[in-house]
Write a structure and sequence with these properties.
The protein contains 13 helices and 10 strands.
C-alpha cells in the first residue's frame, strides 16, 4: 500500500492529538463524517479514514443537499463518489423547505445550520453512528472568536468551539485551512467551492475574506492566537461553570427554579450572572443573553419591577424575597 502523502499525515496527526485529548471516539465507536465537498471536510474524511483502521472506528459519510442553489446536487454526487473510493457507506440528506422553516427565527444561515445538524444527527442515529465529526478548522475558530467579539459576547461566547461537544467532534480545530487544501492537493482531489461563501453580505464571509487576512498581514499567526484565546476561555469556563453549579445548589436546591434574592444579589457579579444562566438552563429555559441576565439580577436586587422575558416569553419573576423561574 502506498504511503500517505505528508500533507495528509500532518492533518491526520493533528486530528489524532485533538481527539486523544478529548477522549473520543472510543475504540469500536461509529463516526459519521459530515462532508460538504469543500477542502476542509474532504481533508477531514481522508484523515479520519487514515486513523480509523488502527482504532476500529466504524466510519460513514453524511452529506446534505439544501437545494438552495444550483450545483448543490453535483456537490453531493462528488461526496458520494469520494466516499465510494474509500469504501465507506454514504447517506445523502435532502432538506425539505419545511425543515428549514422550523428554524426560521435563526435567520437564513442559522436556519440552514440548525436543520442540517438535526438531519445529520437523526441519520447518525438510524445507522448506529455514535458521533458526528465536522471539518471546522483553526481559521473557523478564529472567525468565531472575532464574530463573538463583535456581538459583545462574554467569556462563554469567546470560548468558541470545542473539539468535543455533546455528540459533535471537531477534529481539525488545530489544523489551518491552508493545510486542508494542501492535503487535498497532495491527494489529487479538486474539492468543491460553495459560491455562497464568497458573498460578503454575510458577516462571517466578510471576516474571512477581509478581516482575518488583514490581521495576518499586521500580525502573522493571528488566527492561531485567536484560537488559543478561545482555548484559554474554555478552560476558564469549565471551572467557573462548576463553581456556578455548586453555588446554585447552595442557593436553590436541586430544582434550581427558586432562588433567594438577597443571597443572589450578594454574589460577585460574574458569578451571579453564571448562576442565573445555570438556573435558567436547569429550569428548562433557553440561556438568557447578557441583557436579559442583567435584567434578572436587577429584578433580584429590586432595581426593576415586573417579570423578565427572553426568547419570546416571560421566564423569571420576583415572588416576595424569592426569584422564581416560571415553568418552561
Amino acid at each position: 500500500m502506498a504511503r500517505a502523502p505528508a500533507a495528509l499525515r500532518l492533518v491526520a496527526d493533528l486530528a489524532a492529538r485533538a481527539l486523544a485529548t478529548a477522549g473520543a471516539p472510543r475504540p469500536g465507536d461509529g463516526v459519521a463524517v459530515a462532508v460538504s465537498g469543500g477542502a476542509d471536510s474532504v481533508a477531514l474524511l481522508h484523515a479520519m479514514h487514515t486513523l480509523a483502521g488502527p482504532r476500529a472506528w466504524r466510519l460513514g459519510v453524511l452529506t446534505v443537499d439544501h437545494g438552495l442553489r444550483p450545483g448543490s446536487a453535483a456537490d453531493a454526487a462528488f461526496v458520494a463518489e469520494e466516499a465510494g473510493r474509500l469504501g465507506l457507506p454514504v447517506r445523502l440528506l435532502r432538506l425539505a423547505p419545511e425543515e428549514l422553516g422550523r428554524h426560521r427565527g435563526a435567520g437564513p444561515e442559522g436556519a440552514a445550520r440548525a436543520a442540517r445538524y438535526a438531519a445529520m444527527l437523526a441519520a447518525a442515529d438510524e445507522h448506529g453512528w455514535d458521533w458526528l465529526a465536522t471539518g471546522h478548522t483553526e481559521d473557523d475558530q478564529a472567525e468565531t472568536v472575532l464574530l463573538q467579539l463583535l456581538r459583545g459576547a462574554g467569556p462563554d461566547g469567546l470560548a468558541g468551539m470545542a473539539v468535543h461537544s455533546g455528540r459533535l467532534l471537531r477534529p481539525l480545530l488545530r489544523v489551518q485551512r491552508a493545510q486542508t487544501r494542501a492535503c487535498c492537493a497532495a491527494l489529487g482531489i479538486r474539492w468543491r467551492e460553495d459560491p455562497s461563501n464568497q458573498d460578503q453580505h454575510f458577516l462571517r464571509n466578510a471576516v474571512r475574506a477581509r478581516v482575518l487576512p488583514l490581521l495576518e498581514e499586521l500580525r502573522p499567526g493571528s488566527a492561531a492566537t485567536l484560537a488559543r484565546a478561545a482555548e484559554l476561555a474554555r478552560d476558564d469556563r469549565a471551572w467557573t461553570a462548576e463553581l456556578a453549579t455548586r453555588t446554585l445548589d447552595d442557593l436553590a436546591g436541586p430544582d434550581g427554579a427558586v432562588l433567594a434574592c438577597e443571597a443572589l444579589a450578594a454574589l460577585p457579579l460574574g458569578l451571579a450572572r453564571r448562576v442565573v444562566r445555570a438556573a435558567a438552563s436547569r429550569a428548562g429555559h433557553p440561556l438568557p443573553a447578557a441583557a436579559a441576565t442583567d435584567a434578572v439580577l436587577d429584578l433580584a436586587a429590586g432595581r426593576r419591577p415586573g417579570p423578565v422575558a427572553w426568547a419570546g416569553r416571560e421566564r423569571a419573576c420576583r415572588d416576595g424575597a424569592r426569584l422564581r423561574f416560571l415553568p418552561a
